[in-house]
Design brief:
The complex is a heterodimer.
Chain A: H1 2-24, H2 36-58, H3 68-74, H4 76-117, H5 122-143
Helix pairs in contact in A: 1-2, 4-5
Chain B: H1 3-13, H2 16-34, H3 40-47, H4 56-81, H5 90-101, H6 105-138, H7 143-159, H8 165-179, E1 182-183, E2 190-191, H9 205-221, H10 242-264, H11 269-284, H12 296-312, H13 314-320, H14 326-337, H15 344-349, H16 351-374, H17 376-382, H18 387-406, H19 410-427, H20 433-455, H21 460-463, H22 467-496
Antiparallel strand pairs in B: 1-2
Helix pairs in contact in B: 1-16, 2-3, 2-4, 2-16, 3-4, 3-9, 3-14, 4-5, 4-6, 4-12, 4-14, 4-16, 5-6, 5-12, 6-10, 6-12, 6-13, 6-16, 7-8, 7-20, 7-22, 8-20, 9-18, 9-19, 10-11, 10-12, 11-12
The chains are: A mainly alpha, B mainly alpha.
InterPro entries (chain A): DUF1468
Transmembrane segments (chain A): 7-27, 39-57, 78-95, 101-116, 123-144
Domain DUF1468 (chain A): 10-149
């Protein structure tokens, strides 16, 4: 639980440090003040760093055991479901342009439905997958004239 | 006021194509609002691709209809299964669900719909009288005034994340940080693009919004996916009684203006408006003990305020391009994408568009009451949609929406990252609205800041550039000290009445 609670302020501190390095690596402007592209990001970077540290300090005052959502997310079963759903999303991202919208969506939606809704409801899962994939493909490709891979 | 523009607006709103989009938006919004976990922001975000290729006015009508349709729908799930569709429907659970337990679900839903209608109509009149003068006033704004306006809006949003000020500032700076990705418009320097060509134009904030609201929401709902509640089919009579109406009228009329004025403030939105309307109503009520046990006044007050706040939150969005809530933030992004540039000039250059929207809001509210009362049985059935089927569908629509924005799977990675961020922000109680608002105004804020520093010879002079900037600076200080004042007043109250604690 503490690791998850710590994750965001620590992540933001690391992000602000990387952001700072990138700010100093920026090309100077060719016109006007050479450092102009750095000013605004520098203010932001300082803000992220200061408030991440304040948040980290404030964490001591928080009773994280009272946070039901955090307690739920810390459970292995929840982490597993969230992780698997995110895994499916990542695979969908990787196959989308290679297999095209129709096949990748059938695989993605089918996998999600069979995983979440169970094998027992296979007729519902299959029909929802096929109807949704074809309907959205037809709507976007022909009615809205949006080209999908 | 030129009344011919109003009549022209009404004529355009009544065009069959616009009426069709209005009805479709109202139905889709109601359905999205009813489904637990899906609020108006998510609804508009995942349905954005529908507006592609549409006439700008039809797109605006559709999005506005989805917005207030989702607000109408949000209270249905609060009343029927004690599960609010989003934050603004929380207050409807307090007395709405107890009415359902008493067998008055139908009456609760119909009177809540009427309360929303009256609240919405009151706010439309407020919109007419306030939006145009505000837009005319905003025409006086130069770069310095805009910088101060953005600072005020951001500080107000942060201040309203009560108890989480540091977290509010943190998410605000994160949003501003994301907005700096891409080519700097003043110097042409590529910033933080990691040599990815797709990032040259920056990150489309709608992808982040879809990620945080839709993907983040789906991931959050995975926690309780096996514990979905189902409503009772027996909703009792769907017509409220004369006595219920008598009790409701005054709270409805009182709460509408509360919601409207709070709705105009950036970040306050429907949640604060409805909760404040509920607590105000309870404080002045003679029958306080009945609140929380099915008092009809406790249901109609937040419903009227919520609907009013929705219209109010469109004022800063349309007049100054500053969204007042998550849903209007999504709308703003979508409007820019389809070629409508909100801001003071919108009222100067496209009064027809503004008046058509106002008229369509009026017609839309009436259509929504009809939908919500006549189709109550069908709407209850929507709640039977299994979440295990619904959430995968939302995921597909989210990815599809993200793809159609930039035709690149790079946006899918951003979407997934934003979804994880949205989940963590929600679980760890970080306010999301400051991030979204900062992300939207970040680029304009930087450009105006750089221009103003050149015009006024340094950043400090911006503060004293004009009476408007001084006024906005004072408002910023006031909004930031608001939580401190509330805290001090709370301590004083505790000291004065120690026994009541």
């Amino acid at each position: 639980m503490y690791i998850i609670r710590l994750s965001l302020p620590v992540l933001f501190i690391v992000a602000s440090l990387i952001y700072a390095i990138m700010i100093f690596q920026l090309q100077p402007a060719m016109l006007g003040e050479p450092n102009a592209p750095r000013y605004f990001p520098l203010i932001i970077c300082t803000g992220i760093l200061i408030f991440s540290i304040v948040d980290l300090i404030n964490m001591r005052k928080e009773n994280i055991r009272q946070n039901e959502d955090l307690e739920m997310l810390s459970r292995k079963s929840t982490l597993k479901v969230v992780g698997i759903v995110l895994g499916f999303c990542l695979v969908y991202t990787l196959i989308f342009e290679h297999l095209g919208f129709l096949i990748s969506t059938i695989l993605f939606l089918g996998a999600l439905l069979f995983y979440l809704n169970g094998l027992k409801h296979w007729i519902l899962n299959l029909s929802v997958t096929i109807i949704t994939a074809f309907t959205t493909w037809y709507t976007f490709s022909f009615l809205l004239e949006i080209s999908l891979p | 006021m030129d009344f011919s523009i109003i009549i022209d607006g009404l004529y355009t709103a009544l065009q069959p194509i616009n009426l069709m989009w209005l009805v479709i938006g109202a139905i889709l919004g109601t359905i999205v609002g009813i489904l637990p976990g899906l609020g108006p922001a998510t609804g508009i975000a995942v349905l954005i691709p529908l507006t592609f290729g549409m006439e700008p006015i039809s797109a605006l009508i559709l999005m506005a209809a989805i917005y207030y349709g989702a607000l109408f729908g949000g209270s249905r799930s609060s009343i029927l299964i004690n599960t609010p569709g989003d934050g603004s429907s929380i207050a409807a659970t307090f007395d709405g669900y107890p009415m359902t337990k008493k067998g008055q679900a139908g009456q609760a839903m119909s009177i809540a719909a009427i309360a929303s209608l009256i609240g919405g109509v009151m706010a439309i009149f407020g919109f007419i009288f306030l939006a145009i003068p505000l837009a005319q006033f905003a025409l006086n704004f130069g770069p310095a005034e805009y910088v101060m306006l953005f600072i005020f809006a951001l500080s107000a949003v942060v201040a309203l994340s009560m108890g989480n000020i540091a977290k509010g500032f943190l998410t605000m700076f994160i949003g501003l940080g994301i907005s700096t990705i891409g080519v700097d418009l003043q110097s042409g320097v590529h910033r933080f693009t990691l040599d990815v060509p797709h990032l040259t134009d920056g990150i489309d904030f709608i992808v982040i919004i879809i990620g945080i609201y839709a993907l983040g929401e789906v991931l959050y709902n995975m926690f309780n996916i096996n514990k979905a509640k189902k409503p009772d089919q027996n909703i009792g009579s769907k017509w409220f009684t004369k006595e219920q109406w008598k009790k409701s009228l005054a709270p409805i009329l009182r709460s509408g203006p509360i919601g409207f004025f709070l709705g105009i403030l950036p970040g306050s939105g429907g949640t604060i408006s409805s909760l404040l309307a509920y607590s105000t109503q309870k404080q002045i009520a003679k029958n306080k003990e009945e609140y929380g046990k099915g008092a009809v006044e406790g249901l109609v007050a937040p419903e009227s305020a919520n609907s009013s706040a929705a219209v109010g939150s469109m004022i800063p969005m349309l007049t100054m391009a500053i969204p007042g809530s998550g849903a209007t933030a999504v709308m703003l992004g979508a409007l820019i994408m389809i070629g409508i540039q909100p801001g003071p000039l919108l009222f100067e250059n496209s009064p027809d568009l503004v008046w058509t929207l106002i008229n369509s809001m009026f017609i839309g509210n009436i259509i929504l009451v009809i939908i919500n009362i006549a189709m109550v049985g069908m709407l209850v059935k929507v709640l039977h949609t299994p979440p295990k089927v619904l959430y995968p569908l939302v995921l597909v629509l989210s990815f599809l929406g993200a793809y159609t924005l930039g035709y690149s799977t790079v946006d899918f990675y951003i979407l997934i990252l934003a979804g994880v961020l949205g989940l963590l922000l929600r679980v760890l109680n970080y306010p999301v609205v400051p991030l979204i608002l900062a992300l939207i105004v970040g680029n304009d804020m930087e450009q105006n800041f750089m221009r103003a520093t050149v015009i006024y010879d340094g950043p400090v002079s911006i503060l004293f550039a004009s009476p408007i900037t001084i006024g906005l600076a004072l408002l910023t200080i006031l909004s930031l000290s608001y939580p401190l004042i509330i805290k001090l007043l709370g301590r004083r109250k505790k000291k004065d009445h120690p026994m009541t604690m």
